[in-house]
Amino acid sequence: MKIKNLFLGVATAAMAMAAASCSNIDEGDRFINVKPAEVGRAVLIEDFTGQRCKFCPNGTDVINGIVDTYGEDNVVAVAIHSGPLGFAGTAKAEGLMTAAGNEYYTHWDKENKMGQPWVVFNRKTSPDSKYQTWASILSGIISEKANLSVNIANAYDAASRTLTTTVGAFGTNGTVKGKLQVWIVEDGIKALQTMPDGKSNKEYIHNHVFRAAVNGTWGENITVKEGETTTKQYSYVLPKTWTAENISVVAFVYNSNDNNDVGSVENVAKKHLVEHEGETEK
Question: What is the pTM of this model?
Answer without folding.
Answer: 0.85
